[in-house]
Design brief:
It comes from Papilio xuthus. This protein is α/β, with parallel strands linked by helices. Helix content is 37%, strand content 15%. The protein binds 3-hydroxy-3-methylglutaryl-coenzyme A and magnesium ion.
Length: 255
């Protein structure tokens, strides 16, 4: 890949801010989204519609999505856990949703309060409805190389979930190293397995930079022809249900 081929999928306003302990006011979130669009970013994940009991920081998703001024040619996807979140999001003029099954049982229980299989069933309901409504659906898989509860994750299981997400109609699947424990070697093993079931142009890579390996892990992935990279402005981010998860790969480092 050359730099000009790379599609940046910015997750700062969602993955970046969801982990902040102090509530970030809605107008600050909106301003961040406006500044990212002004900087030329074309894909900005802007909110999530998860349970406010689980992630209070994202509880103003409706206000964020109703307040932002949308720039032409910019995509503003939102993260959706279930049909309830989907119905709320649909009142905000949404064009793309992201669903997020876990790659491990332990993380699925902590993050979604259900098994991987049950999570896939719920996400399928969302995907089916969203596609019927004419939306694009993106799939994430979290903990693709390691889980804070289950340890190392075998790539075969991740390839299977990838297949299921494409079967549900996802246009793209983002492989998430949620806690940033990947290495160039584990990323290569993952890519070899997942590329048995997917084309590189339909995959994205989502790294957290816990051990400073984000860019080298990314390079390992780019060598397999990956064109879409998730990153977060100034490396903000982490998941409240993944102990030890630090920030995402920083967008400015990626650029
Ligand atoms: P649950 O407690 O099992 O759900 O949570 P429930 O159906 O029993 O509902 C509990 C309460 O939440 C009820 O309210 C529901 O109405 C409400 P009550 O009756 O008690 O008043 N509720 C909702 N409210 C608003 N919007 C909704 C919604 N759903 C239920 N959508 C659930 C299950 C999935 C909802 C919960 O576990 C949840 O919200 N989890 C999301 C956690 C999260 O946001 N994690 C961070 C994002 S994932 C991530 O960061 C990783 C990623 O970046 C990839 C990577 O890094 O690798 C994507
Ligand atoms: Mg993440």
């Amino acid at each position: 890949s050359t730099v000009s081929d790379i599609r940046i999928y910015e997750v700062g306003p969602r993955d970046g801010l969801q982990n902040e302990s102090k509530f970030v006011p809605t107008d600050v979130k909106v301003e961040l989204i406006h500044k990212l669009a002004a900087a030329g970013i074309k894909n900005i994940e802007s909110a999530s519609f998860v349970s406010p009991k689980w992630v209070k920081q994202m509880s103003d998703g409706t206000d964020v999505m109703k307040t932002i001024k949308r720039s032409p040619g910019v995509n503003y996807p939102v993260l959706i856990p279930n049909l309830k979140g989907y119905e709320t999001a649909m009142k905000c003029n949404i064009e793309e949703v992201a669903i997020f099954p876990a790659g491990s049982e332990g993380f699925s229980q902590k993050n979604l309060n259900c098994s991987v299989e049950e999570g896939l069933k719920r996400f399928k309901e969302v995907a089916v409805q969203a596609i019927k409504d004419g939306l694009r659906v993106r799939g994430y898989i979290s903990c693709v190389v390691g889980c804070p509860y289950d340890g190392p994750i075998h790539p075969k299981g991740i390839a299977k979930i990838t297949e299921e997400l494409f079967a549900m109609g996802c246009y793209e699947v983002s492989l998430g190293d949620t806690i940033g424990v990947g290495t160039a070697g584990s990323v290569q093993r993952l890519m070899r397995e997942v590329l048995n079931v997917a084309k590189p142009e339909n995959l994205a890579l989502h790294f957290h930079d816990t051990y400073g390996q984000g860019l080298s892990n990314l390079l390992a992935g780019l060598e397999f022809g990956i064109k879409t990279v998730d990153s977060s402005i100034s490396g903000l981010g982490g998941c409240p249900y993944a102990r030890g998860a630090t920030g995402n790969l920083a967008t400015e480092d990626l650029v």
